[in-house]
Design brief:
215 residues; mainly alpha; 2% strand; two-stranded antiparallel sheet
Length: 215
């Protein structure tokens, strides 16, 4: 996954089989919260904002990682403020660096790659989610925390670009397209979701259920 050159991961039979099994193991509880979040986002009323924050926090595990109330307040300020796009692209670096300045509960600092991908993803469905299951599916390892932040962020942006382009390419193939069509048939609202988000659901399930034979 190199910087500046998009790389599409070729799907091996084991990867396709894992996606197929993941779809069969997917339940409404896996995607209903996301669909509700998507519907709530445009509603700026206090009740809707309160419901959004509560649901987003539980669905995406925002209480994990030792983050503080100060972090969550800034996080949702950015999310609702719409300051996510810069020059037509997600401002991953700007958001990561802004949130990095807020200490975690144990007093250290961290680049919140996963949470920032979820913040961007709720605005832009064509942008994939980042987590350990995605790393495992792609056979990747994140740079160590000892690596300079700007290099880690460059890697992250490149990796997410590769993941997004890979998902879009896979979705054009007959076997994956059939799996996605099965998933969309479960709920009419899924028909409006970008294929990147649908594959996010499935790749997460692959990792959560350890469906790859070498997991």
């Amino acid at each position: 996954m190199g910087e500046g050159v998009t790389k599409i991961m070729p799907l091996e039979p084991k990867h396709i089989d894992a996606l197929d099994r993941a779809e069969r193991l997917t339940f409404p509880s896996d995607f209903n919260p996301y669909l509700e979040l998507k519907a709530l986002l445009p509603d700026a009323t206090p009740d809707a904002r309160k419901r959004f924050c509560s649901l987003f926090t539980s669905y995406y595990g925002l209480n994990s990682g030792g983050i503080t109330d100060e972090f969550k307040a800034k996080y949702f300020e950015v999310l609702f403020g719409g300051n996510v796009i810069l020059n037509g692209q997600p401002d991953y670096a700007g958001i990561l660096n802004l949130l990095y300045g807020i200490k975690r509960r144990k007093g250290d600092y961290a680049l919140q790659f996963s949470f920032v991908s979820k913040l961007v993803g709720i605005h832009l469905e064509s942008r994939p989610i980042y987590d350990r299951h995605v790393l495992a599916y792609f056979g990747e390892k994140a740079p160590a925390a000892s690596v300079e932040n700007y290099k880690r962020i460059e890697w992250y942006e490149g990796f997410l670009s590769d993941v997004g382009h890979s998902y879009e390419t896979w979705a054009k193939g007959l076997r994956v397209r059939q799996i996605l069509e099965r998933l969309k048939a479960r709920d009419s609202r899924l028909k409006t979701c970008h294929e990147v988000r649908l594959l996010d659901f499935l790749v997460w399930k692959v990792g959560n259920k350890k469906l790859l034979c070498d997991d």
